[in-house]
Design brief:
The strands form 2 sheets. A 6-stranded mixed beta sheet has the order 7-6-8-5-9-11. Strands 2-1-3-10-4 form a 5-stranded mixed beta sheet, sandwiched between helices. The chain starts with a helix and ends with a helix. It has 367 residues and is α/β, with parallel strands linked by helices. It is built from 14 helices and 11 strands.
Length: 367
């Protein structure tokens, strides 16, 4: 009887231990998952892939630049980098060259969140963000290098950027950055524009922008808006004397065939902005926001040297095509900026953009 009792007690202890062991395994399994996650975090695995637990997101972006233009290359590079950084979890379905419409169409679609990202030059944005008229300030960037301008346009501690960011947000857009490297719109002419007096009476084709036209009038020229398709023939026939554009645009239009001089007036900065719909940006997980910001920063750093080379190479093409390049000393820009008409335009633009023009000039001087 004692043996039977001892046997039963022994069996009960074994079963009890087995039950306790089985009871420990289930929590261990769930704790084990948490431990694995903690171990991964301690080894950096989670940090290396902060997108692992996020849903895939696709944004739609576009531009209306010409094929191969800096804006297209920039937008496509940002899309490529976002894909690479997130391992394909965040992607940008990018449509260049006006596939989704012109600049105004793209910006309207962006405001309504039908598309999320737009790359374009600064001028078209003025209709949606009036403060962007600050980029119409003639020759405001002319005496600064690309690195200095970049501090003002993209710097984290830039007062100008902070004020412009607020204007973008008010328009339901979020500014991601500006692509530039101190390259400018230049003047081609059949007149040797060696000094300020040479501009008097110059028949020059400009964009239909009241600030641009006011500038040319202030320095004595006669601005004439004209459809782009008509410009080459108007220059060839002598109906107009001059036009203004970036060097790559001048080469693309073969203006070296009908113009004698390339004057580096540097009156308007050649810059592309990239922005995203405000709601779309805010809806992104912070990890995706950081990835997008990183992609833009990396693309800007890669593209800046290319812009300088594009500008230099195209100037050489124009020179090889028979044009004479005219460079100006800093005093040339100082003389123009001191003109009453130009000073009045600066004041007018500054009032229109709520003092942002003053902030820009101070930020450049302090940079």
């Amino acid at each position: 009887m004692k043996k039977m009792t001892s046997l039963l007690l022994a069996m009960a202890m074994v079963l009890s231990l087995a039950a306790c062991g089985g009871g420990d395994k289930k929590p261990a399994a769930s704790t084990g998952n948490a431990s694995t996650g903690n171990a991964a975090a301690s080894t950096g695995t989670t940090n290396d892939d902060p997108y692992a637990d996020l849903d895939e997101v696709e944004l739609v972006g576009g531009d209306s630049t010409g094929k191969g233009a800096a804006g297209q290359i920039f937008g496509e590079l940002v899309a490529s980098k976002v894909d690479e950084i997130t391992g394909g979890k965040l992607t940008i379905d990018y449509h260049p060259n006006g596939d989704l419409g012109g600049d105004a169409d793209l910006l309207r679609q962006l405001q309504s969140n039908d598309i999320q990202i737009v790359v374009c030059q600064t001028a078209p944005v003025v209709s949606f963000i009036p403060e962007m008229a600050v980029f119409d300030l003639p020759m405001v960037f002319a005496k600064y290098d690309g690195a200095t301008i970049d501090k003002v346009l993209n710097g984290a501690d830039s007062a100008f950027k902070a004020q412009l960011n607020e204007a973008y947000e008010a328009a339901d857009m979020h500014l991601l950055g500006f692509l530039q490297n101190a390259t400018y719109r230049l003047t081609t002419a059949n007149v040797e524009l060696k000094d300020l007096a040479s501009f008097k009476g110059l028949q020059i084709r400009t964009m239909e922008n009241s600030n641009h036209m006011a500038f040319w009038s202030a320095i004595g020229a006669e601005p004439t808006p004209l459809a782009w398709a008509e410009v080459y023939f108007a220059l060839q026939s002598g109906a107009i004397d001059a036009q203004e554009n970036a060097a790559d645009t001048c080469v693309g239009a073969n203006f070296q065939e009908v113009q004698k001089y390339l004057a580096c007036t540097n009156h308007i900065l050649y810059a592309n902005q990239i922005c995203i719909n405000k709601e779309a940006y805010e809806d992104l997980d912070p990890a995706y926001q950081a990835a997008l910001d990183q992609a833009v920063a990396e693309a800007l750093a890669e593209m800046a040297p290319q812009l300088a080379k594009i500008d230099t190479d195209n100037k050489q093409v124009l020179k090889d095509g028979g044009m004479t390049i005219i460079e100006y000393a800093p005093e040339f820009y100082d003389e123009i900026l001191a003109l009453d008409g130009v000073q009045a335009l600066y004041k007018q633009i500054d009032e229109a953009v709520g003092g942002l023009a003053t902030t820009l000039q101070e930020s450049l001087a302090n940079a």
